[in-house]
Amino acid sequence: MALGTQAVQVVSGVIAARLLGPTDRGYLALLTVIPSSVCQVGALGVSLSFCHFVASAPGSAWSLAQLLRRTALVQVTVLTLAHVVAVIALVGGGEAGLVAAGAVTLVSVPISFMSEYSLAGIQGVGRFQLVNVLRLMSPVAYAVLLLFPAVAGDASLLLVAALVVLANGVAAAVAAVYARRLLTARNEPPQVSVGQMRAFAIRSYAGYFSPLEAFKLDQILVGLVVSPAALGYYVAGAAFANLPRFFGSTVGLIAAPAISAERDPARQSSKLVLFTGATTALTLAVALPLIGLVGYLLPLLFGEDFRAGVPVAQWLLVASVFLAIRRVLANSVRGFGVPLLSAPSEVLSTAVFSVGIFLLGSDPELSSVGALFAVSNGLGCALLAFRVAMLLRRRT
């Protein structure tokens, strides 16, 4: 299902890029990534906590949801105001179409929270297949909606931004309907307080935190510090890098429970090495051919206007190998019971990229931006690998 989501997003990304061109594609990325990042930062892991406690006591699902109503309302209000400020800073004084597109996205925060809390509740009661289907709804709806302007051969940034919001809104509404049906019958008194749920959320959030990946901080910095056009090329290149990174995420999800289920430290270490080796082999087998082929594939799929994005795409493919390895290592050490072991590597990668993007200046070569992303993630991967090696040495 996750691979299907990736495939649909590639298709919609190609259509949007061909409709908008590099600059407006970059603005679209900013207008969608900013509310997503605002929600990720401001959610503070509360939906993760909700899912955990619903899974622990499914009979109290609806009562737990009611406990979090005020928390969710405060989050939506505060984060929507933050989103408004960010959009004004981005599009204020811009062309009318850009301002209108920014205004359309201002409902993104409420939509995002409705979706995340609904899916968390559904996942908590064990309807995993339904969660996967519902998560696929938004990218599929967006891809289908994009077919109409694609057939017409013309679209504006405002129209495409509105289609993004419409697809997300429909998917969130459907998820909310299913969540209400599944949770309302489970109204036993809760066994935890809202304070306990918030405390668990903060602890979960600390282990989950990964700015470059979860918050797409790299895209925000490229769009704001370099230019929207540079971001347009960057996201086109990132479409190719998503496949190798997918293997790291997928193997990592398997690694954590498989390692935590083992009680023998030697077998735990062996599984970590096995999962890391398999991820390295898979990502290299995909990334290396793509590095050679992307010079042909990117202009073919996205159009000749995006040919300038080939060098950054090649560097992002290099970075995807480091990201995949780091992701499987981070999930593996969660299986060891030390989820924060990966935190310093995340901080290092984020710091190197954030400082580096400013040092490159206002008009750097796109290849330099891609190389910076690869180096920052390579350093983070090396640091985590060293810390994991030290952990394994202490356990033997």
Protein traits:
16 helices, 396 residues, mainly alpha, 2 domains
The coarse overall form would be globular
Largest sheet: number of strands, sense, barrel closure: none
Number of separate helices = 16
User: How do the SSEs run, as a string of H and E?
Assistant: HHHHHHHHHHHHHHHH
Helix content: over 70%
Written account of the structure:
The chain has 396 residues and is an all-alpha fold. The relative contact order is 0.12. The protein has 16 helices and no strands. It has helices at residues 2-43, 46-56, 61-67, 69-91, 96-104, 108-124, 128-152, 157-183, 194-208, 211-214, 217-226, 228-260, 265-302, 310-335, 343-359, 366-395. The mean pLDDT is 86. It folds into two domains: 2-208, no CATH class; 221-395, no CATH class.
